[in-house]
Amino acid sequence: MDLRLERTEQAGCLGTPTPHLGWRHAAGTGPQDGYEVELVRGSAGPATVAVTGAGGAEQVAVAWPHEPLAAGEVGSVRVRTSHGDGGWSPWSEPLTFHVAPLAPEDWVARFISPRHLAGLDDPAPVLAGTVTVGPGLVGARLLLSALGVVRARINGTRVGADELTPGWTSYHKRLRFHGYDVTDLLREGSNDIDALLGNGWYRGALTWDLRRDLYGDRLALLAQVELRYADGRVETVGTDGSWRAHSSHVLSDDLYGGQHTDLRLQGVHGAADEVDELDVDPRILVAPEGPPVRITKVVPAVDIVHSPTGKQIVDFGQNLVGWVNLTVRGHAAGDRITVRHAEVLEHGELGTRPLRKAEATDTYDLAGPEETELAPQLTFHGFRYAEVTGVDELRLEDVSAAVVGSELTRTGWFTCSEPMLEQLHENVVWGTRGNFLDVPTDCPQRDERLGWTGDIQVFARTAAFLFDVDGFLSSWLRDLAADQRPDGGVPVVVPDVLRDDNVIATAWGDAATMVPWVLYRRYGDLDLLRRQLPSMRAWVDRLWAEADDSALWRTGFQYGDWLDPTAPPEDAAAAQADPHVIQQAYLVRSTEMLAWSARALGQGALAEEYEDLADTARAAFQNAYVAPDGRVTSDCQTVYALALCWALLGSGEQVEGAGERLATLVREADATVATGFVGTPLILDALVIAGHPELAYAMLLQTQNPSWLYPVTMGATTIWERWDSMLPDGSINSGEMTSFNHYALGAVANFLHRRVAGLVAIAPGYREVEVDPLTEGPLTHAGARHLSPYGEIAVSWEKQPDGVVRLDVSVPPGVLARVYPPGVKRGSVKVGAGEHTFSG
Prior knowledge:
Layout: E1 2-5, E2 11-14, E3 21-24, E4 34-41, E5 48-55, E6 74-82, E7 95-99, E8 112-114, E9 125-133, E10 137-147, E11 149-154, E12 157-158, E13 175-176, E14 178-181, E15 189-198, H1 200-203, E16 220-229, E17 234-238, E18 244-247, E19 250-254, E20 258-262, E21 273-277, E22 285-286, E23 293-300, E24 303-306, E25 312-328, E26 336-342, E27 345-346, E28 349-350, E29 361-365, E30 372-374, E31 381-389, E32 399-406, E33 412-416, H2 419-435, E34 436-437, E35 439-440, H3 453-466, H4 470-483, H5 511-523, H6 526-546, H7 579-600, H8 604-625, H9 637-645, H10 652-668, H11 683-689, H12 693-700, H13 709-713, H14 749-756, E36 759-761, E37 768-771, E38 781-788, E39 791-799, E40 805-811, E41 816-819, E42 829-831, E43 834-839
Parallel strand pairs: 2-7, 13-22, 20-29, 37-41
Antiparallel strand pairs: 1-3, 4-5, 4-6, 6-7, 8-21, 9-15, 9-18, 10-14, 10-16, 11-12, 11-15, 16-17, 18-21, 19-20, 23-32, 24-25, 25-30, 25-31, 25-32, 26-29, 26-31, 27-28, 33-38, 34-35, 36-37, 38-39, 39-40, 40-43, 41-42
Helix pairs in contact: 3-5, 4-5, 5-6, 6-7, 7-8, 9-10, 9-11, 11-12
């Protein structure tokens, strides 16, 4: 039995006294009718054990059944379940936890900053102090945060494996800390602690203007050590004015620019500097909800080529995010090695133009001829290729790439009979990995890397199938609410570093309503929905404040159907779709999502209020933008996709007319895609709704530009920002918005999971699913697997030589599946846990 505690399977830094529980049963387990939760509490001294139980089948987002935990408390929890016959399952493996500080008074450490060192253009500082440990230590915990990013060591050994700690949040309102068990790193007596600080998102360059110190001009460290002794004593010590600062061998560091390291200075710190205690309000400190940023994979180099100008370029075979690991030897002290990064080659040379102002360059001044492992510590890059200078002849075995990102658990897979579709899906997976680095960014390589709300709004459903993003996006939504304007407006990037109070952008700000709803549907967590409801309502009320007397919203600048393929390279917002049509469609959708959320939370009166408003907005859409025959204003693929998928049309004649008009437009376009960010997630579903699944397959399998498979034919290993980020002749699109790792258009993977494979969640948390694949098409087999909160659900279908379709469905305990067997006209059967096969 797999146990989860507050959205994680590793509750090393628990930020609530009453965490939720969840568990997955082993295959073959019968229906659950009760459970018991054992809590072992042992913060110091003898442990205490308590067991509570309840009846019922509840196993997802289960409320904490014990007394609230206390700050600093450590312990473990495990679960067992009963199954009708009176017997009990074995106990789950215990999940250990440590409760983080829960109130300002739980902090004794102070933020400390070098008094004279560590200016904006100075080397990265190291802050150092000592901790004295007495006899009888049984446990120790380090709580770590920074204004900037931090790597800590105790007695020369690195603490943990996290990168770029504490990550990126809305720092002035929410500053994350992380917790580490450091018992094995401490010894009786004096212990040295040091921490290297980098600029990170706090003080480094951000946005295309390369704005620095957006949050503050001083780096700072917060470190608190909790020491637990056998006699029950708990001693807490932390950073204070007794610490000292030194300059490090990292001469400069920046997320966009890269890192310059002088290895001759390693271990040589120069004169010590005093530190100042900064007045940082401890109320902004928060425990992590999602997984930390770590090295999740190491990719070996696959080739080393020489460019037409003689440069050595390493190809890793995969566009990824992280840094280059390089082994060198035999160099003189002072020799410099430079590593430049890019996602593509252009005519054989490193294609750096899409990086814009981001230099993406790491340099190393070597200390001598000894074999040395080179890797940066305080930056990251998006790249497939790396140009290395300063090494005469590189060897493949001396080069690898560390893949860096939030350590998300993979939960979704897709297979089919078309290799290019499988590659497309793999590209979506890699795009998610690269851009889910503490916040859901638009791209990981150029002078941007921001949490654009529109990108995650269109991609959230896909992301939640592929990876466990519950804690990751839950944390980001807290930042969205923290940065939300007093009038309810939502910034177009979160954390908000653009600080533009005037943009109320449809499809971008709607992340406030749509992402919480996705997480509730995927993970069944009503508490998250309850927490976000005020933010959701504030956004919807802001939109209605913009509506005119006819209930139409037509004000303000809009990004519209961003990067419509017909838009010229210099104007990404120049789309075929009328932006007012898009605004009104989203007004309906966000209003009804708010109503659905209120209904799920048992707030009937509030739900009715917004249901009425949604109906009013829908009627206004029909009156203003829909002709009696179903024609929609601006007459393009995106507006019909919105109208059909979101039930914005009135009469049956309008629905039929809109569907046929969409089909005509797709045929006229030879089944190429004519949608941007807004229409792309919906266009294939709209064709199926219109009764034309054959056109959906034709568009899905199209290889001519613009299409999803055109980049695959060009060797793409991630999703591009533009349909034609690279032109057929191998040159890079001249548009400013040209990224080769931009997941938004990868929202099509949701169609692969739900429609092609046929796996659809129809109740929160996948408690009930529908299985209804699109088998009438050119594919001969397809399948999807998803590790849901209840366990793995698997669907696969295959056309037999005699034309019969075989459908296999695997259902975990706790899940009910409504299956539409092949060959049966719209008839369904319900099945429970087990392996099921259907033919027709």
